[in-house]
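Why do we care about 3D structure at all? Because function follows from shape, and shape follows, mostly, from sequence. That is the central idea of this module. The next example makes it concrete: a single protein chain, its amino acid sequence, and then its structure expressed as tokens.
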Amino acid sequence: MSNTVKEVSMKLGYEVTDLDALFERAEVALERLRRQTVAESGESTDRLYAQPMDQLMQTELHDPASGKLQPSLCIAVILDEMMSDVPGTELVNTEAGPFE
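And the structure:
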């Protein structure tokens, strides 16, 4: 394989029938991402996922305007956690919505 840097984007659509299960899995993903980030970089406030868990839950899983839990943000965090094990791959942009 080549070492070419490519920015890949895609649009995904999910139907969620169990919001509690989605939220629980997103919380697990956040805990893993936080643990990995802190192990690599410490609790630096300029690193994504280095904040305390209660703060991460609000900033990464909830709509900042309404404070409501957003399934699309939960899915984005889960996907980011899954891809964190792929060397040379980093999430660079997220567009989540619509927010209800």
